[in-house]
Protein 1
Amino acid sequence: MYDHTLPNLVWILLIIGCTRYVDAASLRCYNGSMDNPMIVPLDFPRPLINNSCIETNRVTKFFISGFNRNVTSEESITILSAYIKRGDVNVVYLDWAEEATKENLGTVLGYLKAASNTQNIGFRFAAALLNLRDGGLEFTKVHLVGHSLGAQIAGITGNTLRDQGYVLQRATCLDPAGPLYSGLISFKNGVGPECAKQVDVVHTDPGGYGIAARAGTADFWPNYQGGKTVQPGCPSGNYPLLSQEGLCSHVAAWMYFAETINDCNCFPSASAPDYATWLNTNGTTNSTIYMGEYISPEARGPDTEDDCGSKINIQLHPM
């Protein structure tokens, strides 16, 4: 956990446009292994269809990593490899590493640059998906998976498409980034329950590096204890910004999800209108929902305005 309140000077710098936009994003499509992916510019994606890297009769999984991460980061390799191992889906990585890197700006300004770039990347990714749709991609077979700022890009993309009359089938948002996406001064276009037909959100560090509010059609709160959440195996305390110890609970979201890709039904969850109700009933439920890749298409959170309602995962899982 950490205090992500930014100094007033930083907000001023953001407003006057201190960040530099780099137009380098691409799509990497994998055909059977992590070796030799087909790489196309984000703004010219049609060869993925024309050269059959994306087979339109299959579900297509798009993975999007977060701030200062890239295709060689642990979460990217783990999730992409797990989907490739399945062998029955198209696997594509949205590579926005140049736009996501902190370069030599330092952590705070680097994050501001990356967070502001998410909006443009989301708009362009939406345009790329429309281009692929014109080539035969079916939006009912599209599943976006994003972690941290990558989850917010998934939300922006879905929202942009919905504004144009199109709806993606599913967006899985793994601990969506909180800084600059929550609070009074923040981007309002991000993860929300309307960015896809099904939006499953996993909150492992709510109020820390991740958002603390409900944002999906089904929200999961692994090991939530009311307020500060520390995942099993993670240290508690205050740590330097973006330190390995401080990021531990935030990272847990993609680790949990990756485990479910080739091992379904790992994380049984109980539904409740809020945390207090779940606590009073000791997590008992008449129906079990499983968090992760194989969530039921009909899974929905309770109809409540409470930020900590929806699905509560009760299974402790040391990392």
Protein 2
Amino acid sequence: MGKKSRVKTQKSGSGASAVVSPKEMMNLISELLQKCSSTAPSAGKEWEEYIQIRGLVEKIRKKQKGLSVVFEGSREDYFSDLMSWAQESGASCDGFTVTDFGTEGYGLRATRDIKAEELFLWIPRKMLMTVESAQNSVLGPLYSQDRILQAMGNVTLALHLLCERADPASSWLPYIRSLPQEYDTPLYYQQDEVQQLLGTQAVQDVLSQYKNTARQYAYFYKLVQTHPAASKLALKDSFTFDDYRWAVSSVMTRQNQIPTEDGSRVTLALIPLWDMCNHTNGLITTGYNLEDDRCECVALQDYKENEQIYIFYGTRSNAEFVIHNGFFFQDNAHDRVKIKLGVSKSERLYAMKAEVLARAGIPASCVFALHCNEPPISAQLLAFLRVFCMTEEELKDYLLGDRAINKIFTLGNSEFPVSWDNEIKLWTFLETRAALLLKTYKTTSEVSRLEPKLCWKLWSEVSDCRSI
């Protein structure tokens, strides 16, 4: 998965263990929980809150130095155990091997020619770490009594991962030892690295991710120390912020949905070996075979022996990849940026515009997306912009008369413009908003690929309208 697989040294796992009283640690944890649970800051104060939360976390990390679990050796040392365990468990292992692909990190390399759509990888359920397996594990008693665990499958998986990592007899150790010791998710960013995101659309999600992770850690630290159902958990003796950050990142970069054993609903799962595949553009080629009770993956394309085997992670933007997966995909066919648009309630024609939009099933204020590929805007955004730029007479045409209902259905169709003046207005307006959006970035490096493509497309649309 691109840079998600890069291995670093876990600083918190070296050096002498810190000496800190349980009371002192609990006081710090309580302070962190209170800070993370307080009312959301007012607009513009999010960075200040982040600094305060991070300060508390760093105090806690300093006192926990040397207490985190770290396996001996490098991640690569355990790949042979992973492959042996997979083969013994009934997974397919004869067409590939784990290889270091440099800047892309570890991935799967074909050891023979593989044809497109060929079933080359399957992983039986018994190898998967799921919310269901967590319920049946040492975590089960706590899960049955805690509503947050029951409501948040990703958090359950993170704690499940930590409990199994602490168990020398865990059947999942070959998998857990093969995971990165650190990640490139924003949870691992230095403060100055996060600061460079200020002004970008990603920063709010990055700050929220850090706050939520800190709150969850504080909550579960107190729960593990005080709840009777947690008395037998190994986490009671050692549960550091770095441990939780690692587990959250492991789940965040790898979790997938699979059917439950009875097939009645979906559950979250970690899928060993399969999650070694890196991302490329394409289609989803992984599914779940309920009859054989296993995860199956067919080849996205033809692969020659020694070529890297890729899968498609889904239609995420690069901002989403950075936040949730820890890497940036240069040729992302689904890259996009968000743009918030709305009709001002103080506008004279607000009621008419809101009514036309409501009939089209579109809110009067909404977050849309500008895409780097064709078409640059969705049918919904096109419909909104057309209504946004309508004159009073044009609005009447879509509100009154026998044909009004039928005309509503054409709002998002590029073949049926409201008028040529309306088309020029909407594309000129969008071009201006896109230019303003670009100015919010301190540098254009993050949007250098999107900027020329998007602006050229918007300008082409404006020019086409003006030439008619």
